[in-house]
Specification:
The chain is an alpha/beta fold. 35% of the residues lie in helices and 21% in strands. The protein has a seven-stranded parallel β-sheet, with helices on both faces. The N and C termini lie far apart (49 Å).
Amino acid sequence: MKQITSVQNPFIKSLVLLQEKAKNRKQTGTFIIEGKREIEIAIKGGYEIETVLFYPEICSETEAKNIAKNTELIEINKDVFQKLAYRDTTEGILAIAKTKSLHLSDLKLSENPLILVAEAPEKPGNIGALLRTADAANLDAVIIANPKSDLYNPNIVRSSVGCLFTNQIATGTTAEIIAFLKERKINFYCATLQNSTSYHTQDYTTPTALVVGTEATGLTQEWRDAATQNIIIPMQGEIDSMNVSVAAAILIYEAKRQRGF
């Protein structure tokens, strides 16, 4: 079995760049997954694993083989592991995986889909939380409009706790996504302060997309003008907005309630 013990190894250097640079992830079509559970979820979600690196003092060769069967294994030492690991609690194993297509045309929707659309989310923690909520509610898809972050950013992989791999995800421009929804006769409800009605008064039992924007600027005018209906979560305190992932969860679970969970 191949062993790497130097952080100066060219292959290890290329993996550091893969962690740090979106350009490298895009050029190679690969990214790094850390942790046993996350790798197992990615495999279950249809992600192709190219190589697994393991640090035997934490993760044994047998464990590594069981997690990623018929995959190239590389044993690494503590220095290399600490150089590559993005989290302090990673369980001694990392995998190099191939990215998936994020085209709208690749989405496979049910006859009565429930979709979350997030316009230009910036914070990896918020994106991860949105993906976790989408997984919990078993949504048909999550669509990111005008993405500001590479979805295979290690912070998003980490904060989604594997839910990057359990959701169908697509990206596109606002115009492309509006056209996509209209073409498929999917009603879309935009969470916004302007010209809105309370979210709980709407019917989400037909094909539905729930659209949320950033906390700082909200949704762009293009979404607000095109919406089936603009909706608002009543705010009874001093502030007029809440965390985007919290707002999305409220809307999603109202739709799930109406659909009988």
